[in-house]
Specification:
Layout: H1 7-10, E1 24-27, E2 30-33, E3 39-41, E4 57-62, E5 78-81, H2 96-99, E6 101-105, E7 125-126, E8 138-143, E9 147-148, E10 162-163, E11 187-188, E12 191-198, E13 215-217, E14 229-232, H3 239-246, H4 265-270, H5 310-313, E15 358-360, E16 376-380, E17 383-386
Antiparallel strand pairs: 1-14, 2-3, 2-13, 4-12, 5-14, 6-7, 6-8, 8-12, 9-10, 9-11, 15-17, 16-17
Region (Disordered): 302-351
Biased composition (Pro residues): 322-335, 342-351
Protein name: CBM1 domain-containing protein
Length: 387
């Protein structure tokens, strides 16, 4: 993306809570690997206390606890945290590398250890994907470095123009990190923090009998060590700087920041984009989208020697396969049972659905007859598939 582009003027809407925030936030997608070897995307759910948006990412801009002045990001600024290619981490558990990228294994109803409530702290937060089923889902905790060299809005590695603050991380994690900035990166930025809540609850009764954990990131990472995120700044004018200067209460409720304009859930949920690549990504898939073979490590992952996936070759257009409706926001408490659904899909329709295609589920209006050699099997309430 050209850094000279003015994202606010090019954008027509935002899925963020503040109207002025037209930035880009990106993370890899989590998939569930079924015992039969197929994959399905894990839906996100709204974080606790944030309303009912479709999706589960919460974005925080945090000022340091010692009242240092914070400088907003500049037009064209972008950065990345994490390395998608790594498959192991041998690091000090209290280092920035360890504490900046973690997973919270929620108990039912977003339950956490009351002694360790803050992200990246306590025994429920790990640097790799949880080894056991999480009753309330899994939350990705992603912190970005908050010191800037004051010169470069980007660098070739998208990371060396930023650095972590100096000093030791306190018991309650990066949320409460004060510290100064190193001489090489003297400008204090907002501490950018992303929470993504993955609704893994529907898959807890399909946990592998061998004890292995069944989740994998979209770049072929079954460990979670390769968790990473990208950020491209896109706030309108000086709106972020005004917010950093004026909205300094510890509560963090969007309504408390009068320098910005609140967007309601209905407006957020209307802000969507059509599919740009004619590649099937919904329902159970025989392999991860793109060319992303599973690479377990511990050696770093490598790029495939060749790839003919549509997303790589540039094929665009066509009609996307109809996707099953996702629950979007799933409000607690976490369900322990699923609602009864018909054990058979609706009456057959032509033409025959090819293997791996959708053939039924709540809201499905397409065909229900599978091609020879496969049968229509219920995967969950929303999705029946020819297998």
């Amino acid at each position: 993306m050209d850094p000279d582009l003015d994202l606010p003027s090019l954008s027509t809407c935002t899925t963020c809570r503040f109207k002025e925030d037209l930035s880009n936030y990106w993370t890899a997608v989590l998939f569930f690997k079924h015992p039969n070897g197929s994959y399905i995307r894990v839906p996100q759910m709204a974080n606790q206390f944030i309303g009912s948006p479709n999706g589960g990412m919460t974005v925080y801009y945090i000022q340091p606890m010692n009242n240092q002045r914070v400088t907003a990001f500049k037009k064209g600024f972008r950065m990345i945290v994490g390395n998608p290619m790594i498959r192991q981490k041998n690091v000090d558990p209290n280092s920035f590398e360890a504490r900046s990228l973690t997973f919270r294994c929620f108990g039912a109803n977003f339950q956490s250890d009351p002694q360790w409530l803050h992200p990246g702290t306590g025994p429920l937060d790990t640097i790799d994907l949880p080894k056991g089923a999480c009753a309330g889902g899994i939350r990705s905790n992603i912190f970005f470095p908050s010191c800037w060299d004051g010169v470069n809005i980007d660098t070739p590695d998208h990371a060396s123009h930023v650095a972590w603050p100096t000093g030791a991380i306190p018991r309650d994690g990066l949320f409460w990190m004060a510290g100064g900035c190193p001489a090489s990166h003297p400008i204090r930025l907002p501490l950018l923090f992303l929470e993504i809540v993955w609704d893994t609850r529907p898959f807890n009764n399909m946990w592998p009998t061998d004890g292995s954990q069944p989740f994998v990131f979209s770049m072929g990472d079954p460990t979670g060590f390769g968790q990473h995120a990208d950020y491209v700044f896109g706030w309108e004018g000086d709106s972020l700087q005004r917010a950093m200067d004026q909205c300094t209460d510890l509560g963090g409720a969007p309504e408390g920041c009068r320098a910005l304009t609140i967007v309601n859930d209905a407006t957020i949920n209307r802000c969507t984009q059509p599919e740009a690549v004619n590649e099937r990504t919904s329902g159970y898939l025989p392999a991860l989208p793109g060319c992303n073979p599973i690479q377990n490590g511990p050696a770093q992952a490598t790029m495939p020697a060749s790839c003919d996936a549509v997303s790589t070759t540039g094929g665009i257009g066509g009609t996307q396969p109809t996707s099953p409706p996702l629950p979007g926001t799933v409000a607690p408490p976490a369900p322990t049972t699923v609602a009864p659904v018909p054990t058979q899909p609706p009456a057959p329709q032509a033409p025959a659905i090819p293997k791996w295609g959708q053939c039924g589920g709540i809201g499905w209006t397409g065909g229900t007859t599978c091609a020879a050699g496969s049968t229509c099997q219920r995967q969950n309430d929303w999705y029946f598939q020819c297998i």
